[in-house]
Write a structure and sequence with these properties.
This protein has 14 helices and 13 strands. The protein is flat, with a radius of gyration of 29 Å. Helix content is 41%, strand content 10%. It is α/β, with parallel strands linked by helices. A seven-stranded mixed beta sheet has the order 2-3-4-1-7-8-9. Strands 5-6 form a two-stranded antiparallel sheet. The mean pLDDT is 96. The protein starts with a strand and ends with a strand. The chain folds into four domains: 164 residues, 3-Layer(aba) Sandwich (Rossmann fold); 48 residues, no CATH class; 62 residues, Topoisomerase I, domain 3, CATH 2.70.20.10; 131 residues, Orthogonal Bundle (Topoisomerase I, domain 4).
């Protein structure tokens, strides 16, 4: 029996549907898994089924917070089952024992890699099963894309470094958070503070940045600075504007950004050049081009959506998850890559056609796009487990698109527009 383990039920159902289509036979839904007609099984995690154990799991004495216990550094790391998903771990325990072959189908990022790997380690699968475990990378939940992924399995051994990086992040968070929170809280108690002083690898530096910025705003003192601009008219009665670039001699009158703070200096320059002839000593002209901007990853999409639509980072992520899982209109959203594999270029005609049908404001641009063009976004060497966020090849009616909420429509249009740019020539100037 071959066992497919997905990261979440929605992905598990997509895999089961893809396999059912390939087998051309129906499947049966069971408690916590789906059984295929050929005897293979699709099951899933529900996010992380395991979590790092608390310090007292290593030593009962750590239930009391004392400085002499620090630093707490586990010699053998322990994971414990999350209480709310313990039943699903029990289902997987049974299925893993029965399986002859395992297919890891976690999300195509480092957390998705670790999420299933840690379950397999926790369940103590045999060395033979571990060596022969395969990896299925699904970044698009549409049936054609799922079937392509199921027919392109790779060895899970290739992704050990990805899993180790996620594990390192998890353990670093634990070491930093557990030890520093206890240390700061105990020191705070000595000073009379009654609460817990929570410290985290990410949250504490971020809090520091917020505090620093707040102090900069509070202590900011506005200062006037002066720029000198001159309008020149040539013999053909053509006019253009030039900006004065202060010389080295002006440095004592400039701030750290090179702006002139001394008004008399600027006024003196104005007086000296007003009405005077100017001579062009050198003219250099170059033809330049600007290539299309790369497709979005999650962070760049969040930044752009915040500017364009005043959406928070969480709203963008939630909207992307809905477009990916519920509507299947975009590819995997939790990506940090802005590039696409070369094979993705083969899908360009279908994706462009889908954009033109789905999103009326982009229909004209979709018709003008040139799918034979290949921008620098298509680069296998810059793509690992996942690629940039792009529209899927799924087409829906205008009426169906209008039923998406406003955020979903705006974010899809933003992603689609960025994708279409890959199929237009570079801007020449």
């Amino acid at each position: 029996m071959k066992l497919y383990i997905a990261e979440k039920p929605s992905l598990g159902r997509a895999i089961a549907d893809g396999l059912t289509s390939l087998l051309n036979k129906p499947h049966r839904k069971q408690q916590g898994y789906i059984e295929l007609a050929n005897g293979d099984v699709v099951s899933w995690c529900i996010g992380h089924l395991l979590e790092q154990a608390e310090p007292d799991a290593y030593n009962e004495a750590y239930k009391s917070w004392k400085l002499e216990h620090l630093p707490i550094v586990p010699q053998e790391w322990q994971l414990k089952a999350k209480s709310q998903t313990r039943s699903q771990l029990t289902v997987l325990r049974k299925l893993v024992k029965q399986a002859d072959q395992i297919v890891h189908a976690g999300d195509p990022d480092r957390e998705g890699q670790l999420l299933v790997d840690e379950v397999l380690s926790h369940l103590k699968i045999s060395a033979h099963k571990r060596k022969n475990t395969q990896r299925c990378l699904i970044s698009d939940l549409n049936p054609p894309a799922v079937k392509r992924a199921l027919q392109s399995l790779r060895s899970n051994q290739e992704f050990v470094p990805l899993s180790v990086s996620a594990l390192s992040r998890s353990r670093a968070d634990w070491l930093y958070g557990m030890n520093m929170t206890r240390a700061y809280t105990l020191q705070g108690q000595k000073a009379g503070y009654k609460g817990v002083l929570s410290v985290g690898r990410v949250q504490t530096p971020l809090l520091g940045l917020v505090v620093k910025r707040d102090e900069e705003i509070e202590n900011f003192i506005s200062r006037d600075f002066y720029q000198v601009e001159a309008t020149l008219v040539n013999s053909n009665n053509e006019s253009f504007v030039l900006k004065w670039q202060p010389s080295e001699a002006c440095k004592p009158y400039q701030d750290e950004e090179g702006r002139v703070l001394h008004k008399p200096l600027a006024e003196n320059v104005c007086q000296r050049i007003t009405g005077q002839p100017a001579e062009i000593t050198r003219l250099e002209q170059k033809e330049k081009q600007q290539p299309p901007p790369l497709p979005f990853n999650l962070s760049t999409l969040q930044i752009e959506a915040a500017k364009a639509f005043s959406m928070s980072a969480q709203q963008v992520l939630d909207t992307c998850q809905s477009l990916y899982e519920r509507h299947q209109l975009i590819t995997y959203p939790r990506s940090d890559s802005r590039h696409l594999p070369n094979e993705q270029h083969n899908l360009a005609p279908q994706v462009i056609r889908a954009i033109g049908q789905n999103c009326q404001p982009l229909t004209e641009y979709a018709q003008q796009a040139q799918p034979n063009l290949k921008s620098k976004a298509f680069n296998d060497s810059k793509v690992e487990a996942h690629h940039a966020i792009v529209p899927s090849e799924k087409s829906i009616s205008v009426e169906q698109f209008s039923k998406l909420n406003q955020f979903e429509q705006k974010v899809y249009r933003h992603i689609a527009r960025q994708y279409l740019m890959q199929f237009f020539p570079a801007y020449q100037y």
